Amino acid sequence: MAINATLSQFSDYAFATAIAIYVFAFVLYLADVAFNRQRARARERELVPAGAGEERGGTELPASGIVDSTADVDVPEPKGADRPLSARFGRMGVALTVLGLLVQAASIVLRGLAVERWPLGNMYEYIAFITAVGIGAFLVLAKRFPIHRIGAWVLLPVIVLMWLGATVLYANAAPVMPALQSYWLVIHVTIISASTGLLLVPGVASLMYLLRSINENNPRKLARFVQRLPAKDALDRVAYRTTIFAFPLYTVGVICGAIWAERAWGSFWSWDPKETVALVAWVVYAIYLHARSTAGWRGNPAAAINSIGFVVTVFNLFFINLVTTGMHSYAGVS
Could you report the per-residue pLDDT of 132-156, keeping only the tens digit for each? Predict the structure, then answer.
């Protein structure tokens, strides 16, 4: 199989460009949060000109001295010239994120054309795919739910993952080893990596939910950090609806992996480290979905379980793939 070095080089250029675009978008999302906090403080001064507990026009500042300005997040901003500076930064951040995703998708396509195979044959390609899926999921959800202000915290792990993929985990364009030359590579790895990318967004949303809960109990501690995060209800809905879509996909991916294992190794399940941790993640997400549908376990307990699932998934991606030795070690992919 001939490798097209030119296409491979352009793919690498596009991947590096996507990282740079995401970094700029990350800065714009932070600017959105920072300027919106200033706007919220200005509104506080308009509502309560002197001291906590004083009233003006029927509006009272809470005893904590901090106004929860979540409503500003969920209410549509004015359009055109009346749009505040923070909202303009946010819109520019979303636009750059879309551009970065298009460039990253071009990188993945060029990689596949360069090697004349499905571009999911090593950790570098695997990370490129799951981060692209995660960004795509965030953009779709941000269109429907008022969550664009968690864009910086979604992009942060994506940027770190892509940087590691482009440096530590980078692999030159090459054919896959004979053990991976199977149509199950397309089926199993695509499904499992797509579901992993989708689970990135609910993981971040649940972590942000927990931070808002901590801020409610200790308003002075984390107020500056979480004051402009989306409402807890929006974060909870995003986490649940994304997980309920990704979980069946993840389940299918695990089943396909077991079928491929039986054909390649003669056993559906061998308690390989990667298989075991994948099962643990599956159980955690199953518990989360059950907890989320049970009234007594909604809120913080459900968000904590979902966050644990996210941590286990990331642990499986890095530690199991790169540190432990098992039947999946030679592949560097799930």
Answer: 999 999 999 998 888 888 888 999 9
Question: Is pLDDT above 50 for 2?
Answer: yes
Report the C-alpha gap between 287 and 309 in whole angstroms. 10
Here the tokens at position 310 are 């996210």
- Name the DSSP class of 49: S
- Give the dihedral sign, CA 279/284/289/293: positive
Q: Which of 197, 195, 229, 198 is nearest to 212 (CA)?
A: 229
Distance CA 255, CA 7 (A): 34
Q: What is the mean pLDDT of residues 214-241?
A: 76
CA triple 238-154-219, angle to 5 deg: 75
User: Coil, strand, or helix at residue 71?
Assistant: helix
Flag whether pLDDT at 17 surpasses 90. yes
- How would residue 40 be classed by pLDDT, with cut points 50, 70 and 90? very low
In whole numbers, what is the pLDDT of the chain averaged over residues? 79
pLDDT at 41 over 80: no
Q: Is 299 left (phi over 0), alpha (psi -120 to 50) or beta?
A: left
Looking up tokens 């600017």 gives: 31
Helix or strand run (H / E) with residue 9: helix 5-47
Cα atoms in the 13 Å half-sphere on the side-chain side of 180: 22
Site of tokens 């379980």: 305
Separation between Cα atoms, residue 95 and residue 97, nearest integer Å: 5
Is residue 8 pLDDT above 60, yes or no? yes
Taking the C-alpha atoms of residue 279 and residue 291, their distance in angstroms, rounded to an integer, is 18
Q: Locate the DSSP E strands across the chain.
A: 55-56, 59-60
pLDDT score of 82: 46
Residue the block writes with tokens 């396509």: 109
Both tokens of residue 328?
Answer: 């999946």
